[in-house]
Amino acid sequence: MLYADIYSKHATVCAKCTVPESEFQLEGDYLIGGLFDIHQVNSSFYHHRPEAIDCSSAPFILSSYRRFQLMRFSVEEINNSTKLLPNVSLGYEIFDHCTDSVNFPGPLNLIAVNGLIQPLEEPHKNLSKVIAVVGTYTSPQARAVAPLFMMNLIPMVSYGAASSIFSRRQIYPSFMRTVHASKDVIEVIFSILTEFNWKWVAFLYVDDSYGIDGLQLFLKKIKDTDICLAYNKALDHYSDYKAIFKQINAQNVNVIIVFAPEWTVEELMKSVKQINVTNKVWIAGDAWSLNKKIRDQIQGIKSIGTVLGVAEPNMTIPGFREFIYSFKAQTHCENAKQQKFCNQICHCSSLTAEEIIDADPSFSFPVYSAVYSIAHALHNILQCGAYGCKANIKVYPHMVILCLLSLNLTLFKNCVQVPTSVCSTECDVGYKKTQYGIHKCCFNCTICPNGTYNNITEDPYSCINCNNTQWSEEGSTSCSLRVVEYTPFTDIWAIGIMVGAFILVFISLALSVLFALNYNTPVVKSAGGPMCFLILGCLSLSSLSVFFYFGEPTVAFCILRYLPFLLFFTVCLACFVVRSFQIVCIFKIAAQIPKLHSWWMKYHGQWLFITVAFVTQAIFLLINYIYAPPSSKMDIYWNPQKIILGCDIDFKAALISLVLPLLFCFLCFVFSYMGKDLPKNYNEAKAITFCLLLLILTWIIFATGSILYQGKYMQPLQSLAVLSSLYSFLLWYFFPKCYIIIFQPQKNTHHYFQNLIQSYTKTISQ
């Protein structure tokens, strides 16, 4: 057993009473509990032992006190009515719920029976006299106390808790609210941003479940939109507002969403005035948008900017003004009877009727609606009519829940609506019907997902799939044709790359002429002699592949994208392997293995090696294209609204055509390393190694890009990688030779080369 009155022993410390007991308590046939934060604790409390908190010593919240009085007025109005609950009286037990952490005496008292709580008792036996609870105001308060009421399925009708977690019926089966959920508020805020085309915003939120839920809902809403959350920050009692606004200004954010209760915003606006934050757009959540105290704060800040807000309807409740004047006109005894329970005291006798009436009206109508909803549910349960309510019906809280869930209540609306009689309302466009039961009039509505559509005249019960050349958004009524994309020859990227290919061919031709004119010079011979012309020719032929990456892909284009490059570039690599080997052979291997050098020279080993490489690579390519030829393809997965035309390659089959290029790259590295200490005019190690590193870097960049991006510019990216590979050898291998031939002819003599060889020989002999 858990004793609810354990706290009352410590409650004597808060027993000062200046108002009548009846302000918090009223006897009646059925009791409604009330939880109102008349006072608000802004900081955490730490205790060494269990003890109740004295809410009356905390800061007073006038708007909450107005809501508290509105509940009292609503009950009195219902009791004075002869139509809603004739011959039945409502009572209330209200508590000042000033914090969500150490303020449980009130809620425990509401669920207790004769001061005892028996959680393991049989259902519907020895239950509390309380049939429902109105409260709490904030989401953190509701999360703290809701499990106590859910235990016995006591309806908890909140007039302010908006967090989306309370929509989970399996966790909060008896929780209801008379306010819009935070999701609806975020929807309106999103509409405001969209309407004014504000895309760069900050989101300040209170550091509790309400604020965090608002942030998560906002992030979910702006996902896949043009709106960006530039900055977000949780606010609490210790927030450094100067640092916050310094960061906001540093990021040039002009629109600030504030999702927090009134007391947090009051602190925020104090800092705004002190820091002199000006010319911002402020978007207020419904928790403070109508708060008069904050409005006065804002009006006192020069050039604060524009303030927009989302708010619950501000309804004028007839009779409330007269009720407050009548209540304040009564003479109260200063020595009123001591409170029965802690936190049923206010110290509010000094307030005037005008101050209460003119206080912030936010969430007043939800309180009124909550009380009337409970009363109407009780009206239905007791089967009340013109001659009264049935007295022989035992009312249990779970019965009130069922009536509240089916209740359709309209207050303060004078027009007679046309009655409707439908099992299910018609689905919105883009939704399919899913029949339940035996009648076709009863159905659920399910939105059709992306890639499908619903045609109500064709089949309202199905989402029809779009074909591969079409697309649709969620909730569509038809499909749209996908845009077919590829890189045409007229594209700026295509033109630039093709111009680059022509320049490469022109440079290769110019170098061939230069080398031919200086054919017998040592520089040309050290570069490879006749082999130079083969390399330059193969580089030019390899560039033919570039031209087939543009235009609409066909089978022929897909083959010619890879054939010239893989064939002739392999010959280029074979030439560099031979060239590296020859230099190493002359200076290092010839003396050690003279027969190998003799055989190499006699049978023209370099040309034999290049020929074998050419024939082998041609055979590999032929095998590849016979068994797994490239073909054109349509990529329908990268972008649901587009079809990207490209070439389909069997990468496993294509590996055979990459064996020789990879092997030759490896051999070039090996021979270049072996010849790193040769005479610099014969030492091609640095040039070849640098060319190979550029080659590898180019294809690593391309591979990374192909993983991250699969759009139509994937083809220009690959053609650019091919062209970069060719330029790496053209520029870094041949241009240094050209520079010596043209600008340093003194180094292009037999005498200069002989001196280098003699110096190398002396170094080796030493």
Automatic annotation (TrEMBL):
Q: Which domain of life is it from?
A: Eukaryota
TM stretches of this protein: 492-519, 531-550, 562-587, 607-628, 654-675, 687-709, 715-735
Q: Name one GO cellular component term.
A: plasma membrane
- Keyword Membrane on this protein? yes
Task: For this UniProt record, give its keywords in alphabetical order, as a comma-separated list.
Answer: Cell membrane, G-protein coupled receptor, Glycoprotein, Membrane, Receptor, Signal, Transducer, Transmembrane, Transmembrane helix
Q: Name one GO molecular function term.
A: G protein-coupled receptor activity
Subcellular location, in the record's words?
A: Cell membrane
**InterPro entries per the record?**
ANF_lig-bd_rcpt, GPCR_3, GPCR_3_9-Cys_dom, GPCR_3_9-Cys_sf, GPCR_3_C, GPCR_3_Ca_sens_rcpt-rel, GPCR_3_CS, Peripla_BP_I
Positions of the G-protein coupled receptors family 3 profile domain:
493-749
Q: Primary place of residence?
A: membrane
Q: Does the keyword Ion transport apply?
A: no
Q: How does it sit in the membrane?
A: Multi-pass membrane protein
Q: Where is the signal peptide?
A: none
A GO BP entry is: sensory perception of taste
The protein, known as = G-protein coupled receptors family 3 profile domain-containing protein
Q: Which organism is it from?
A: Oreochromis niloticus (Nile tilapia)
Whichever gene encodes this chain, its name is LOC100696444
